[in-house]
Design brief:
The protein is built from five helices and six strands; from the N terminus they run ββαββββαααα. By secondary structure, it is mainly α. α2 runs antiparallel to α5. This is DUF4870 domain-containing protein.
Length: about 230
Amino acid sequence: MNAIPNPGRTPHDVESCACDACQLFRYKRQYGPAPGPVWPSANAGESAPLPPPPPAGPPSAGTPSGYGHPSAPPPPQGPPPPQGGAGWGPVGAPRPPYGAPGAGPSNERTLAGVAHWSPLAVAFFFALIFPPLRIAVFVPPLILMMTAQTEFLRDQAREALNFQLTVLIPAVVCYLIAYSAGAAGSVLGLLLFIGCLVLQILAAVAASRGEWYRYPVCIRFVKGGHQQPTG
């Protein structure tokens, strides 16, 4: 049949025409107007149905969402922060072995060295003023051990205290020999003093470097704290 669905065009056969306007005319004549919102046709000025909306639901990470724009991947996760006490690393980390340098901050290492050489200063001081008070050589390391805030300082002060208590035994013997035999006891006392002087200087230098120093000859009357590993 002849019809003019678009007044701007010349008469033609609507039933056999393949243009968009004629196809839309035949569709509306058979099925009625299209449901839903429409948008203008580019060819004949008619209206056509809008495309269906995208499926609802949150898009998964890394998959397209909406009209083809990919969603951003989740931000990378960094390593968890370290745990544990200050200076010892994560929980369960072993302590530095005996003789390992670098234990503790500089002020802690300085006080550990003081614990070893302070008995020498006390001995010299009271030897010039009142010799019987030289027995107070164990007081400085005892005070440092009781007031220490870290295990390294407490350990070195304890080691210095045990060494001073150990030296008291041969010092008393030398005093008794000097009281009864004279010169022999004085010579033994001098040798004991030189040996203690060398060992305490070595201990002070090692502790100042952060080493967990151990005297080669020492009775450890006071127990506890860091122990030298065996094997």
